[in-house]
Amino acid sequence: MKDTFKHRGLRQKLVEVVKAKGITDDNVLKTIGNIPRHLFMDSSFLDHAYQDKAFPIAADQTISQPYTVAFQSELLQITPGDKILEIGTGSGYQTAVLCELGAKVYSIERQHELFKKTSKFLPKLGYRPKKLIFGDGYIGLKEEAPFKGIIVTAGAPFVPKALLAQLEIGGRLVIPVGENVQTMTLFIRKGPKDFEKHEFGEFRFVPLLEDKN
Ligand code: SAH
């Protein structure tokens, strides 16, 4: 597992690209500059690791585009110590970003292969999420709720009620909603039954799946 001068140079260029697309949060930009994304990808894609693109990982899934990761992370407005739930661990890249931002991260993945691979991999890079869970993100993680933030990294055909219910007051849910194309959506919990909704641009994610097939 090597991180070279060349990789670091490519990462700085990627930071500039993501910045040019509108990301302004310096802490978020710093994570993109720090995290060796090439190590989260299969070796055949190494040359592409620092392009602002999504790429295939195991189990027919993808590592999200860096701009998308930065966009969602910025919307969460994390301060160190925040308890954050991620749905869709995948390669663990977004998980690593959340860890670097100082969050206490809980992350759920429904593909066992990815869950196993990423559980082993993240500690090797020094990332220690609070808990990685093999399970169904639609139901969230009731036993650890409430969360300051919840981030869904797969396209949700609808907003799962359980996730809204597991936000603390003032908490933020960042979720791409839609079937083929998703609208990035932010819910802020204002009160027990009061949610503020904000919609952003369109993104494309692999689907948030409801069953084990
Ligand atoms: N954050 C990841 C993105 C991976 S793609 C990364 O940066 O690499 C989305 C992930 O969501 C996939 O790994 C997929 O298996 C997972 N997923 C899909 N439906 C899910 C569900 N119901 N519960 C938990 N994870 C799910």
Automatic annotation (TrEMBL):
- Give the EC number(s) listed in the UniProt record: 2.1.1.77
InterPro entries per record:
PCMT, SAM-dependent_MTases_sf
Q: Name one Pfam family in it.
A: PCMT
Where does it reside?
Answer: Cytoplasm
Catalytic reactions on record: [protein]-L-isoaspartate + S-adenosyl-L-methionine = [protein]-L-isoaspartate alpha-methyl ester + S-adenosyl-L-homocysteine
Catalytic residue positions:
64
Decide whether keyword GTP-binding is in the record: no
Sorted keywords for this record are: Cytoplasm, Methyltransferase, S-adenosyl-L-methionine, Transferase
The record's section on SUPFAM superfamilies has: S-adenosyl-L-methionine-dependent methyltransferases
> Where does the source fall among the domains of life?
Bacteria
Describe the family membership recorded for this protein in Swiss-Prot or TrEMBL. Belongs to the methyltransferase superfamily. L-isoaspartyl/D-aspartyl protein methyltransferase family.
Alphabetized NCBIfam families for the sequence: pimt (TIGR00080), PRK00312.1 (NF001453)
Q: What does this protein do?
A: Catalyzes the methyl esterification of L-isoaspartyl residues in peptides and proteins that result from spontaneous decomposition of normal L-aspartyl and L-asparaginyl residues. It plays a role in the repair and/or degradation of damaged proteins.
Tell me what this protein is called: Protein-L-isoaspartate O-methyltransferase
